[in-house]
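Regression test case RT-17, inverse folding.

Input:
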């Protein structure tokens, strides 16, 4: 059996009668589906535990997540293969803490508020990989480091320093956030793990069998940004939002890397440096996507690969062949100054330098 514990916030104010109605429907459906659990509400927060056969719980949790009466559904814990129910007699015990007069309910109400507030913040600042471990009941601190093979992808904004010199702080932040959101959405959809943001740079990795997914993600990022450039107003800096992408593969060390006060669950190794190096190389290449020979060889897709020459990459000794995909979407000016020129010509007069 499986147990899922989550918290969420009311989408709008709900009356006691409306909350009871959720409880009534839940009890009816849950006794039919052999699901048990508890639903607690206080102020604008729901806390729920649902337990039962894995398939029934997955179906119900999907349905609950889509319910428009609440929002910000945040899974706190998923327990698989549980042998005993915690609430065998409750098809869904519904408790509205605010309606209870017992003074002991006050600290419990506070506890739920603190939990919802702090988890909401922690979720935003925590690496998705780490959050996934925690919600699956795994303590990432106990995972031993290991050597493994990965596909690594780096991308960042072209001419970012120039943008920072002509845009105000809010515009720089907004542009960077728009870019990071767009890239992360593509990477999430493609099965990649976003492991780090470093300023305007995204580092992600894929399993070694996912070379095609990584290439597809790179192309999707380029076409997503192209669509964005066409849709935004003429004087928006997003019209000039271009990215460079580097993809490499190889052996890496995966584990908890950092200090006693700040840890990342991430990967380390020459293959990581090579992806960063390929990404930097795109500045001076005629293509925005640079792929290593290893990734090309691992791919099973029918990509029209094109060799861009041989280059020495960070972490390597000899020049190695660098590839791209020969599609219109990967083409870009070879000289980075041409992009800056285009930006300054178009935005000229609307912005003051510095
Ligand atoms: C906070 C919250 C908890 C819910 N819990 C359950 C539940 O345990 N079981 C259930 O069947 N529906 C639950 N629902 C309702 C479902 O989202 C959905 O509206 C309902 O299952 C549809 O039932 P029906 O198919 O009988 O109309 C919950 C909704 C909310 C907002």
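Golden output:
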């Amino acid at each position: 059996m499986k147990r899922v514990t989550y918290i969420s916030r009311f989408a709008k104010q709900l009356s006691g009668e409306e909350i009871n109605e959720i409880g009534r429907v839940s009890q009816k459906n849950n006794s039919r589906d052999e699901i048990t659990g508890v639903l607690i509400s206080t102020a604008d927060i729901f806390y729920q535990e649902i337990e039962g056969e894995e398939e029934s719980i997955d179906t119900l949790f999907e349905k609950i997540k889509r319910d428009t009466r609440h929002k910000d559904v945040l899974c706190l814990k998923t327990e698989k293969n549980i042998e005993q129910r915690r609430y065998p007699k409750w098809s869904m015990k519904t408790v509205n803490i605010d309606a209870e007069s017992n003074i002991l309910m006050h600290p419990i109400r506070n506890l739920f508020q603190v939990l919802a507030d702090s988890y909401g913040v922690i979720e935003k600042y925590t690496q998705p990989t780490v959050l996934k471990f925690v919600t699956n009941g795994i303590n990432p601190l106990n995972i031993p480091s290991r050597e493994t093979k990965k596909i690594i992808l780096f991308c960042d904004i072209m001419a970012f320093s120039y943008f920072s010199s002509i845009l105000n702080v809010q515009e720089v932040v907004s542009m960077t956030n728009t870019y990071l959101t767009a890239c992360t959405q593509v990477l999430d959809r493609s099965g990649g793990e976003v492991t780090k943001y470093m300023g305007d740079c995204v580092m992600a990795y894929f399993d070694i069998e996912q070379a095609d997914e990584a290439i597809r993600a790179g192309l999707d990022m380029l076409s997503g940004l192209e669509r964005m450039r066409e849709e935004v107003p003429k004087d928006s800096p997003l019209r000039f939002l271009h990215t460079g992408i580097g993809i490499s593969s190889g052996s890496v060390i995966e584990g908890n890397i950092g200090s006693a006060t700040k840890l990342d669950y991430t990967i380390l190794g020459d293959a990581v440096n090579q992806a960063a190096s390929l990404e930097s190389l795109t500045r001076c290449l005629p293509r925005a996507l640079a792929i290593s020979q290893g990734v090309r060889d691992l791919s099973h897709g029918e990509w029209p690969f094109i060799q861009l020459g041989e280059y020495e990459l960070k972490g390597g000794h000899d020049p190695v062949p660098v590839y791209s995909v020969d599609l219109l979407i990967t083409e870009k000016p070879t000289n980075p100054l041409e992009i800056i020129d285009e930006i300054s010509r178009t935005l000229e007069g609307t912005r003051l330098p510095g």
